[in-house]
């Protein structure tokens, strides 16, 4: 199995801690890109980017429209825009209606990534209080993507990951102590 | 839920639809960002419960009323008053004082949607005592939204938010003095609407129609591919007076385009450029 080209991480309330745990494990010998869809208030707040930059060897940047997806970069969805992926592996922004009361919506990016990346996509759904992400995980699964969900028992807010585990089979349940398994999957392409 | 498993058009089928639109209706969406377009079309096909691609295609080719609905649903018309408050503050503090020196101020809102941006501008102009000598051209590809601009009526439940935005953008008045509340609608002062000129204008195929001191085209070109962006930017360049201003959306840029060498970004964090050549 080939390793993954892209990881899309979706997180809402209470998910930052897990993101901060994952990031230091990403090494530049992995040819992978990351898109982070985080429900947050305002893009004017640059502290998130700073905070994440300190935890990773990867470059961290907020998405500008038409950004090419490059390895070793973590792209953050800007507040108030959905992020979609084009066939030529560039990023598109979209201000269309909120989905699950969210913009950016995790579903939108998961679905779009599934369409373009299929089997070489890994989706990670983390802690959160709403139903965003599940529909997108189903789409990713249908296209052969690898599904990781934070263990609801270890999530600060369990609702979002709980919805996922109830509604579809998950390839890996992530908690504080199995980060090494996640990284193994990343390198080898499958668990 | 059965309805979820409905029709999902393939890339090839989307291509056929786009060809039909050019051939039958003379509307060219070929150079739109595919990911968003595909999502919108599939959403429409699901909402309207088409059972086959053939049925959808036939309807779109032969039913002009349905084609109208298609354009309304495929274009993204989401907008807001005083969106990006810092941007409006920059307009207020740095751009309008420059425009004030002109005997006649011509402004173009390209892709104005339902007009929230245009009315925000009209309020700024009135507060700067420029509205009497200004003309605001508001254009869009979607005729349905232009009707809404004409009416100047926006949802009442947005007013609290718009009022906060207004204050953050440097507004000093009581925002509610600009509209009359009627049940769940806010009808804006007719004085603000008087200087607005509406037109159907397509950035894909139409040409320059006037010269302006300020052009705003915000969150429209995010839906265009590079080639179409380039066309639109050339059109704006042709339509701007020397030393005129071009304002784009908060995630858009002039930087990689062929006209960039003729422009200088005014306030670094806001997406406003001045034509210097
Ligand atoms: C997301 S809205 C932006 C509204 C407003 N400028 C703002 O920033 O809030 C995009 C608008 O662009 C219009 N549009 C899309 N394609 C266009 C084209 N080819 N020519 C003119 N307008 C277009 C859409 O109909 C829609 O109303």
Describe the structure.
Chain A: It comes from Dawidia soli. Chain A: It is an enzyme of class 3 (hydrolase). Chain A: Its EC number is 3.1.1.61. The complex is a heterodimer of chains A (191) and B (277). By secondary structure, chain A is of the alpha/beta class. Chain A has a single domain (6-188), classed as 3-Layer(aba) Sandwich (Rossmann fold). Chain A is built from six helices and nine strands. Chain A has a seven-stranded parallel beta sheet with strand order 3-4-2-1-7-8-9, sandwiched between helices. In chain A, helix 3 (106-117) runs parallel beside helix 4. The longest helix of chain A has 12 residues, at 106-117. The model of chain A has no long low-confidence stretch (mean pLDDT 93). Chain B is α/β, with parallel strands linked by helices and 277 residues long. Chain B folds into two domains: 3-74, no CATH class; 85-275, Rossmann fold. Chain B is built from ten helices and ten strands. Chain B has helices at residues 11-25, 34-47, 53-62, 64-74, 85-99, 116-127, 143-151, 159-168, 190-193, 226-239, and strands at residues 105-110, 134-140, 153-155, 179-182, 185-188, 196-200, 212-217, 240-248, 263-265, 272-275. Chain B has a seven-stranded mixed beta sheet with strand order 6-2-1-7-8-10-9. In chain B, helix 1 (11-25) packs parallel to helix 3 (53-62) and helix 3 (53-62) packs across helix 4. Chain B is globular and about 55 Å long. The A-B interface holds A 43-44, 63-66, 78, 81, 84-87, 92-97, 108, 111-112, 115-116 and B 11, 33-36, 38-40, 76, 78, 86, 219, 221-223, 226, 250-253. Bound molecules: S-adenosylmethionine. S-adenosylmethionine binds at residues 75-80, 83, 111-113, 117, 140-142, 145, 201-204, 218-220, 223, 249 of chain B.
């Amino acid at each position: 199995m080939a390793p993954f080209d892209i990881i899309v991480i979706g997180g809402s309330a209470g998910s930052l801690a897990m993101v901060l745990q994952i990031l230091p494990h990403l090494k530049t010998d992995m040819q992978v890109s990351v898109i982070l869809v985080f429900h947050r208030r305002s893009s004017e707040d640059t502290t998130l980017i700073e905070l994440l930059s300190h935890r990773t060897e990867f470059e961290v940047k907020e998405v500008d429209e038409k950004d090419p997806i490059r390895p070793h970069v973590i792209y953050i969805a800007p507040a108030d825009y959905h992020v979609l992926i084009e066939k030529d592996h560039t990023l598109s922004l979209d201000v269309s209606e909120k989905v699950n009361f969210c913009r950016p919506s995790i579903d939108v990016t998961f679905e779009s990534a599934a369409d373009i990346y299929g089997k070489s996509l890994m989706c990670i759904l983390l802690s959160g209080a709403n139903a965003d992400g599940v529909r997108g995980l189903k789409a990713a699964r249908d296209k052969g993507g690898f599904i990781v969900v934070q263990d609801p028992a270890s999530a600060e807010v369990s609702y979002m990951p709980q919805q996922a585990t109830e509604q579809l089979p998950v390839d890996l349940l992530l908690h504080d102590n199995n980060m090494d398994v996640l990284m193994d999957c990343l390198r080898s392409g499958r668990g | 839920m059965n309805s979820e498993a409905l029709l999902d058009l393939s890339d090839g089928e989307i291509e056929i639809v786009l060809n039909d639109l050019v051939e039958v209706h003379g509307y060219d969406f070929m150079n739109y960002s595919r990911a968003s377009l595909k999502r919108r079309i599939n959403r429409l096909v699901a909402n309207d419960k088409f059972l086959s691609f053939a049925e959808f295609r036939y309807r779109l080719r032969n039913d002009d009323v349905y084609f109208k609905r298609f354009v309304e649903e495929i274009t993204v018309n989401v907008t807001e008053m005083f969106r990006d408050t810092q941007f409006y503050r920059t307009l207020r503090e740095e751009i309008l004082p420059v425009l004030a020196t002109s005997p006649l101020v011509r402004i173009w809102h390209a892709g104005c949607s339902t007009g929230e941006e245009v009315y925000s501008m009209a309020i700024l102009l009135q507060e700067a005592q420029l509205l009497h000598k200004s003309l605001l051209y508001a254009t869009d590809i979607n005729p349905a939204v232009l009707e809404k601009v004409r009416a100047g009526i926006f949802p009442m439940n947005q007013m609290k938010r718009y009022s906060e935005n207004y204050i953050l953008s440097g507004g000093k008045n009581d925002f509610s003095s600009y509209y009359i509340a009627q049940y769940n609608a806010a009808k804006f002062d007719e004085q603000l609407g008087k200087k607005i000129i509406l037109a159907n204008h397509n950035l894909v195929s139409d040409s320059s129609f006037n010269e302006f001191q300020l052009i705003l085209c915000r969150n429209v070109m995010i839906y265009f591919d590079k080639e179409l962006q380039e066309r639109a930017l050339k059109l704006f360049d042709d339509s701007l007076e020397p030393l005129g201003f071009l304002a784009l959306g908060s995630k858009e840029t002039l930087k990689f385009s062929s006209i960039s060498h003729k422009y200088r970004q005014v306030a670094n964090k806001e997406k406003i450029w001045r034509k210097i050549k």
